[in-house]
């Protein structure tokens, strides 16, 4: 069992918010799990069972070193390795924009888990809009790469993203907008909720299968 990252406060701010959406003892599949921080916490502190999927060699070694169960699969083509309803929760954090076939990935997630948690950068964030108005490509904490050296293949606003979820047969149970630092703001939260497409740097979605 992982012995580190057992304190939620040690997680990245957005992962703290994701962890708070997972119930004790649930079965969790973390797609694009990175170095396993989230799963290490959920397994060690929340009595969850979990599996991570990752392909980056450095991240794979880090996750394995923490004792996080992990498989190396291609998210675009190999998620059919997992059975129907084999997990309670499927997490895809800051990864959807980097896969080749987002609709296929989301469709497979919908089949695998009864609840999905998806985090996505918001290309409609006001700072991005100002950068575009200045004639430059957006860069921020959520989109830190230069245009020629980025793993991100797809960009979307929250409005367009929610239309995509609807097209995939998913209902948005909850939307949690995050500020430019990846935090859930303590003050002005209502303003951020109502103006999320403009004011949120990213957002976490809790999704359920329609019907």
TrEMBL record:
**Which InterPro entries is this protein grouped with?**
Methionine_synth_MetW (IPR010743), SAM-dependent_MTases_sf (IPR029063)
One Pfam match: MetW
* Record-annotated membrane-spanning stretches: none
**Protein name, UniProt field:** Methionine biosynthesis protein MetW
Taxonomic source organism = Propionibacterium acidifaciens F0233
